[in-house]
Amino acid sequence: MVVAIAMQATALTLVRLRDDAAASRLAVEARLSLGLSARVAFAPTPSGPCAPR
């Protein structure tokens, strides 16, 4: 039972990562073309009133 729950959580996490990457594909490609590492390119960008400007 515990293994099944862990597998479901993992599957949901991977689906979320895939969807987020697809939604921000253009931004990620732009960051990669600027020479950033994949880790930095895929990192979320801060937004909202507390984001650095």
Explain what the structure shows.
With 53 residues, the chain is mainly alpha-helical. The protein is 68% helix and 0% strand. The protein has 3 helices and no strands. It is elongated. The N and C termini lie far apart (47 Å).
| Proportion in β-strands | under 5%
DSSP summary: helix tally: 3
Described by the principal axes of the CA atoms, the overall outline is: elongated
**Average pLDDT over all residues:** 88
Q: N-to-C terminal Cα separation, in Å? A: 47 Å
Tally of strands: 0
Radius of gyration, taken over Cα atoms and rounded to an integer in Å: 15 Å
Structural class: mainly alpha
* Main beta-sheet annotation: none
- DSSP helix fraction: 55-70%
Layout: helices, strands, pairs:
Layout: H1 2-23, H2 25-33, H3 38-42
Which tags fit this structure?
single chain, 53 residues, mainly alpha, elongated
Short structural summary:
The chain is mainly α and 53 residues long.
